[in-house]
Amino acid sequence: MRGDHNIDSSSGALAQLRGVSKAYGSLRALDGIDLCLRQGELLALLGPNGAGKTTAIGLLLGLIRADAGEVSLFGLDPQDIRARRNIGVMLQDAALPPTLHVGELIRLTASYYPNPRSVAESADLAGIGDLLKRPYGKLSGGQQRRVQFALALCGRPRLLFLDEPTVGMDIDARQKLWAAIRHLVAEGNSVVLTTHYLEEAEALANRVCVMARGRMISEGSVEALRARISLKRVWCNTRLAIEDLQAWPEVAEARMDGARVCLSTEHPELLVRQLLAQDITLSGLEVRAAGLAEAFTELTRDDTAAHDSSVALQEAA
Ligand code: ATP
Q1: pTM of the predicted protein model
Q2: Measuring CA to CA, which residue among 86, 61, 247, 52 is closest to residue 155?
Q3: Are 75 and 7 in contact (CB under 8 A)?
Q4: Which residue lies with its CA nearest to atom 21 of ligand 1?
């Protein structure tokens, strides 16, 4: 039997913040945010440094208390043991006993859960089968992160919180961890992921929430987020000067990207027609929709601009 069927997640919300605020002294870390995680989804929480992501996760884990609003985990208070034994957690600042062997750490962590995975299965999923006899303190940073991932999943939790899980990992380790996360989601589990790697959110998330200054500034699928920004990118090899291109009305921004110019535009068809007309030697033409990285930059820049003008208005009043 999996999980605890006595707890209420019938609304479909496994974890929820409703109108939640949290301040540290005079600093408002969260300002009335809503967040809802549903069964079987991987939600990526994005935002610049200090946006409030770790605070939001700390509230859902019951590590800190909200000043206002409602916080629930499986329909219960996050500190309720019935909710807690359904979650697995990988935080940024995990302090684990350095002298314990990896196998012992997994066995110990798994013992807190009613229906854990075996040590071998946990190690296999995290790709650390060869590290089980090594003392934790003697591992590299990237190896320690993988062990922390094994500890997060060994209890067979229905919901995983992964706070910047691939920091310090090389490309190979990152790809393997992504595959393991996909496997867990395919099993029907849910994941809340925070990351600064936008390609990580792009590769894994069903839904992306973007936070800035303690508020939720955007929420939706990666596709929907991309669609919110109208800019397209046009790359080409051209003999036209970049300063001249920058002055064209169709060009929002011109820069060099290796040997090619990269032009941002809201009117790609018009721009391409113009380029071909002005430069018969034009080659290497490529037109792409903006990626999550551009959408993220634009969203957070808009939020900063809105905030700055509201501060200026308040100061002027
Ligand atoms: P990062 O991407 O850098 O991890 P974050 O989005 O996780 O940032 P938080 O760690 O939630 O952001 O921090 C939100 C704000 O609250 C920041 O301004 C931070 O300095 C502040 N803050 C967080 N924890 C504390 C604390 N214990 N005491 C005082 N201020 C805090």
Answers
A1: 0.79
A2: 86
A3: yes
A4: 29
Residue 244's pLDDT is: 97
Q: Which atom from ligand 1 is nearest to the alpha carbon of 56?
A: 11
**Of 94 and 34, more confident:** 34
Residues 6+ apart with CB under 8 A from 214: 21, 22, 28, 29, 30, 31, 33, 51, 52, 55
Residue 27 dihedral angles phi and psi, to the nearest 5°: -90, 120
Residue 155 has pLDDT above 90, yes or no: yes
The CATH architecture one would assign to domain 230-289 is: 2-Layer Sandwich (3.30)
pLDDT at 86 over 50: yes
What DSSP line would sit under 265-293, residue for residue?
ES-HHHHHHHHHHH-TT-EEEEEEE--HH
Segments making up each domain of the chain, as ranges: 13-226, 230-289
Ligand 1, atom 10, lies closest to the CA of 54
- Which protein residue's CA is at the shortest distance from atom 30 of ligand 1? 24
Q: Which residues line ligand 1 (CB under 6 A)?
A: 24, 27, 29, 47, 49-55
For the chain, the average pLDDT equals: 89
Name the fold adopted by 13-226: Rossmann fold (3.40.50)
* Ligand 1 atom having least distance to the Cα of 57: 11
Q: Which atom, in ligand 1's list, is nearest to the CA of 55?
A: 11
**What is the 52 CA–ligand 1 centroid distance (Å)?**
6
> Looking at 92-101, 153-162, 256-265, which range is the least confident one?
92-101
